[in-house]
TrEMBL record:
Annotated TM spans: 12-35, 55-74, 86-106, 118-137, 158-176, 209-227, 264-285, 361-382, 394-421, 433-451
Name listed for the protein in its UniProt record: Lysophospholipid acyltransferase 1
InterPro entries, per database record: LPLAT_7/PORCN-like, MBOAT_fam
Keyword Transmembrane assigned: yes
Keyword Oxidoreductase: no
Principal place of residence: membrane
One GO term describing the cellular component: endoplasmic reticulum
């Protein structure tokens, strides 16, 4: 068996550990398919927890489930013992344990060399544990102090331990996401809310959407395997790269970032297929005639939205969508004081939390600080664009194009740090293009204090007596 695994791994150019993970990751699709047919709520929770733990054991070994138990039990204990503070307690305990694992395993080095461990799965699990505790904390707050997302996701009643374990490990979603809410998991298993039987006899079929996700995954992996030999990250250290001119080096940075993204597109497409076929990915019906089922709850990436983003502000809405939503609901929004507008501090704090969640490598920290600058610079161009009067369409279109080109350049410049991780390699790659992706956003931010756009003219509101 081991010899077969080694030969199979060698044939596709990965390590045995990565092959084992990929096989278990693909197995989440049939496992999730069977979950939808398990009769009864109790049996569904047992099946979800049991299969999740089994796949984790087969992927990463016995120790992985011990690592998962720590934040899960800490989060549940905080909900039982300290409901009024369980959200903040679980946030710091969960992130504290995750950071400890990041430091101990230094998984980024292993991932670059073809290894794998349970840290990536622990990252997703940590977000689920924290959101559950915060929503249980929100369950005792008054309606008038809550945002719409808080009202929708809050938990009035403490989930049972079995429900909690089922939620955390269901459908292998802790492998690579997507992150979803405890309230949605419970509603799905109990056939409540949008999962309740339709008055019109409609029952959402997941098979078409699942097939689309699988075809997308196959295309993404094929393109990644084709591109990666042509644009290796190791070339940033080669003399040939240093001998190139500025524009060729900038172009190579674009192509290396473009290549790396297809690996993530493949992973998220598989996880999307897994959640869709389980039924958890269902997000409601369209208003068309006849109505069609939507599966946005499972969507983690919009590939064209990323590659053709008109503004850096759009990127969190189309890349790692469910984690971006989690960061907005549980970090960004909660840092905004009542009656005040969010600013650069909330953006930088959110990006810093995201960086720590990924790991403590300098490349991660630099990338997410860069992301905050990138988004802030894009907002400046967008404000100028919105201030242009309608009779100057050409100028407005020029600014739209500039924002697109700016986003393309700064995104692929910034993501080098995310890929190479080390401080030396990140700074060397940035220096090779004269720090253009850092300088341009800073210049735009400074210019916004000098060139303050007028507020766009809006049509007057109709009077009530008209």
């Amino acid at each position: 068996m081991d010899l077969e695994m080694e030969s199979m791994a060698a044939s596709i150019g990965v390590s045995v550990a990565v092959l084992r993970f990929l096989l278990c990751f693909l197995a989440t699709i049939p496992v999730s398919f069977l979950w939808r047919f398990v009769p009864g709520r109790l049996a569904k929770h047992i099946y979800a927890a049991g299969t999740g733990a089994l796949l984790s054991y087969l992927s990463f070994g016995f120790s992985s489930n011990l690592h998962f138990l720590v934040p899960m039990l800490l989060g549940y204990a905080s909900m039982v013992l300290f409901r009024r503070r369980c959200g903040i307690i679980t946030f710091f305990l969960g992130f504290g344990y995750l950071i400890g694992c990041h430091v101990y395993y230094m998984s980024g080095d292993a991932w670059k060399e073809g290894g794998i461990d349970a840290t990536g799965a622990l990252m997703v699990l940590t977000l689920k544990v924290i959101s559950c505790a915060i929503n249980y904390n929100d369950g005792i707050l008054k309606d008038e102090g809550l945002r719409e997302a808080q009202k929708k996701n809050r938990l009035i009643k403490l989930p049972s331990l079995l429900e909690y374990f089922g939620y955390c490990l269901c459908c292998g979603s802790h492998f690579a996401g997507p992150v979803f809410e405890m309230k949605d998991y419970l509603d799905c298993t109990e056939r409540k809310g949008i999962w309740s039987p339709s008055d019109k006899g409609l029952s959402p079929s997941p098979y078409g959407a699942t097939m689309r996700a699988l075809l997308q995954a196959a295309f993404c992996m094929a393109l990644y395997l084709y591109l990666v030999p042509h644009f290796p990250l190791s070339r940033f250290n080669d003399d040939i790269y240093q001998a190139w001119g500025f524009w060729k080096r900038l172009g190579y940075q674009y192509m290396s970032g473009f290549t790396a993204r297809w690996k993530y597109y493949f992973i998220w497409s598989i996880s999307e297929a897994s959640i869709i076929i389980s039924g958890l990915g269902f997000s409601g019906w369209t208003e068309s005639s006849p109505p069609k089922p939507q599966w946005d709850r499972a969507k983690n990436v919009d590939i064209l939205g990323v590659e053709l983003a008109k503004s850096a502000v759009e990127l969190p809405l189309v890349w790692n969508i469910q984690v971006s939503t989690w960061l907005r609901h549980y970090v960004y929004d909660r840092l905004v004081q009542k009656g005040k507008k969010p600013g650069f501090f909330q953006l930088l704090a959110t990006q810093t939390v995201s960086a720590i969640w990924h790991g403590l490598y300098p490349g991660y920290i630099i990338f997410f600080v860069q992301s905050a600058l990138m988004i802030a610079g894009s907002r400046v161009i967008y404000r100028w664009q919105q201030a242009i009067p309608p009779n100057m369409a050409l100028v407005k279109n020029i600014l739209v194009f500039l924002n697109f080109a700016y986003t393309l350049m700064v995104l692929n410049y910034s993501c080098i740090g995310f890929m190479v991780l080390s401080l030396h390699e990140t700074i060397a790659s940035y220096r090779s293009v004269y720090y253009v992706g850092t300088i341009v956003p800073i210049v735009l931010i400074l210019l916004s204090y000098v060139i303050k756009p007028a507020k766009p003219v809006r049509p007057p509101k109709p009077r009530k007596d008209q």
